[in-house]
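Hi L.,

You mentioned the student needs an example of a multi-chain input paired with its predicted structure. This one should do, with 668 residues in total across all chains.
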Amino acid sequence: MDGAAATMCPQLAVVGAGEAGSELVAMAEQVGARLAEAGAVLVCGGLGGVMEAACRGARRAGGSTVGLLPGTDRGAANRFVDVVIPTGLGEARNVLVVRSGEAVIAVGGGYGTLAEIALALKAGTPVVGIATWELARAGLAIDDVERVESAAEAVERALTLAGARPR
Amino acid sequence: MDGAAATMCPQLAVVGAGEAGSELVAMAEQVGARLAEAGAVLVCGGLGGVMEAACRGARRAGGSTVGLLPGTDRGAANRFVDVVIPTGLGEARNVLVVRSGEAVIAVGGGYGTLAEIALALKAGTPVVGIATWELARAGLAIDDVERVESAAEAVERALTLAGARPR
Amino acid sequence: MDGAAATMCPQLAVVGAGEAGSELVAMAEQVGARLAEAGAVLVCGGLGGVMEAACRGARRAGGSTVGLLPGTDRGAANRFVDVVIPTGLGEARNVLVVRSGEAVIAVGGGYGTLAEIALALKAGTPVVGIATWELARAGLAIDDVERVESAAEAVERALTLAGARPR
Amino acid sequence: MDGAAATMCPQLAVVGAGEAGSELVAMAEQVGARLAEAGAVLVCGGLGGVMEAACRGARRAGGSTVGLLPGTDRGAANRFVDVVIPTGLGEARNVLVVRSGEAVIAVGGGYGTLAEIALALKAGTPVVGIATWELARAGLAIDDVERVESAAEAVERALTLAGARPR
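Structure written out for the whole complex:
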């Protein structure tokens, strides 16, 4: 009995745009809720849109949330972030979001999200995607993103893929 | 009732060397415990020595801990870290430790700790020090570190100084 | 007469994979040569493949090269790099490569290159691509990359687009 | 004959405050000039004060200068910087300045400079200081900074110490 938990909670990153339509927002909120129900800590970029929706879903389901902000002002975090890391690194904080997740769930997304998907795949971190970027080179689809249709599937696949990685 | 806490927990950074003697370790553990009792989240560099002792103290007192690791391997975190951010930035992660604290408590420390003290003072973040670096220039003591002797004092002063900062 | 040049040289970033086939390597070398002939400084990730070929081309044409390495060992730079910045930031250095170019030229590329393209587009930096990633979302091509076929075109377009940006 | 120089130029970092009195400015300018005469590339934080003076000295003596800016606006560089790296990392760019030098010369300096000295010593990079910070712990001077009185001495010692390091 030394106060350390037997095992650390799994940490999953949720990435998506800071401005998003109502469908993606609803999806992100469900992703957050499912992650919380599974006992995972949610890590994200801490701002609005998909990030805020995911945090709100996680918090309402009793989960914990971490926001890695681009700026140095902690007040920029959405109000569902528990732990605020005001990195001050600008878009370089995207690298930290990805590194902090044992798997990444991408919900829709703009160019920042595309960068996060690419950085995750470069690092060998599993990426599960809902309505997100499709990639090709020389007319040939190149896609290591696992594509799913629902929040439940996204969280289940992400947790499975995260568990499959050597720690 | 929307699931968001009324107020975010205060976050304080504890900095100190990865290898430390038993006196500093005991002091750091008490600092961690006091921070947890005050309801603050402890942020640190996530490794051994002072960092591990502070996390152990916080965790045993029921608090939450965040470790910003220099490398990309989450397994390098001490086992009292709840949220692991494997930054992969090397010593540049010291900047993030400092930015994540509303005040910084320095316990002893080597050159990494000195960098963190300097970065905090540069950013205008209050620093409370126990048995830590003394600074001078041209033979003149220049010291914006608030020096205390006990863990209780350190936490009380750090929380007060953090509260005094505009958010 | 104060020793400052009247105008700073334009800086362009060349991005591409650390391992590349002979066609892309030849293309990258020509890109480097054309940049040097145009008086531009070439910034890249400092490693092999497309990066080394571009540096070799630039150097042989009398130009200057900068390598922003992921690690801290300056010896990892290819031997055609003049200024070595061993960032120690891992893939987060990709953000710096992009920020250092007034425009970005992508030659082929893997997931690291995709991240750089995405980060550049996010930041509003023009991207010119040769045989590089194609992007779509929901089956719809979304492409702000200007696609060209030759090194000469790539450099001409990149310099024009860079010049069009407010400084 | 392949266009690669036989040996890369030594790179030295010059650190000091962005605002400095006329004595330190004159000293920094001489340091820059001596570095240029020795064939070294000068790396610095790219802003004013000691940084600008060192760049001016280097440029007037025909040398090359690199500025690692805290922000993303290349226009913030002083006009004697040849290669501009607008890191956008804030004070975390200090880590890169230090990593880019085979030795560090500190001229005077505020808390940013103190952080750079500490980061260099942590990394095992030699530091030569002119009128800069003095360090102690528990009343005991702890000083791995090599102290000199003149620009000529500073450059000579820094080059020697840099050369003494394994590459």
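You could point out the following to them. The mean pLDDT of chain A is 93. Residues 11-140+150-162 of chain A form a domain with the Rossmann fold fold (CATH 3.40.50.450).

Best wishes,
N.
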